[in-house]
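Write out the bound-state structure for XOV.
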Amino acid sequence: MPEESSPRRTPQNVPYQDLPHLVNADGQYLFCRYWKPVGKPKALVFVSHGAGEHCGRYEDLAQMLLRLDLLVFAHDHVGHGQSEGERMMVSDFHVFVRDVLQHVDLVQKDHPRLPVFLLGHSMGGAIAILTAAERPSHFSGMVLISPLVVASPESATTFKILAAKVLNLVMPNMSLGPIDSSVISRNKTEVELYNSDPLICRAGLKVCFGIQLLNAVSRVERALPKLTVPFLLLQGSADRLCHSRGAYQLMGSARSLDKTLKIYEGAYHVLHKELPEVTDSVFQEINTWVSQRTAQAGAGSLP
Ligand code: XOV
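---
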């Protein structure tokens, strides 16, 4: 049968030939997004989304970075959004990291010598940290919005971790239950958008995926003392999905000389979709931080 008659399609049944995409090292098709400035970009930014969500949720952040003349690019991680792979499954957490490095290398081929930044939220933050750790001095900076650094004390008690490890051997596909959407954000509109987005996987987190998240946490912990990339870290004090303890651990352990932490008192997990006073500040902080680090030599002052 000729190839044209059976094109690869997204889980939503759209042919990949009609969409920006890449093929990863396992032959899986990943849906990509690009926000390209009209002129020559000042820098590149890869956006790394979190567990269960997709990169379309970063449209507003990408538009803001685009207005700074940055080329913003992203893909839906394997098992997410419009990419292939069983929903919220990954053979090993490193697959996420490997795919990000492939995409970064691909875009950098067209833009050699431009600085590259990473922006990651939650699980996407853990991916960003591990990506930066794998390529010391490759990345010019990293923006982390409530990154996954420690396992949440609620979802991962010592007992639950042990139970998950045992369960993974006998029932890897058992559900640990879905993320409670009310703890995502205090902004009711954003919780509703999360609950109604067809590209979000709201099914229960499988034991085998929980194990990969725990692997990520322990790899991040080991990577931190080697981390030298400049970063901006934003964290809500009332975050119940990624505890603020993780942010303090990141600040304390990372070797980076240029590191900034901003805590949002009372804010929940998805700071870029929180109450307007929080989200406006998040956008402003990211704008200022990135602007200062992408300015032409002599144009700005840095710590
Ligand atoms: C675990 C386990 C761990 C957004 C995201 C991981 C929130 C969704 C958390 C669960 C079981 C070990 C949940 C939140 C991305 C990180 C989500 C999102 C669960 N943000 N995480 O806008 O990535 O939509 O963690 F065994 Cl560590």
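---
The chain has a mean pLDDT of 94.
The longest helix spans residues 276-294.
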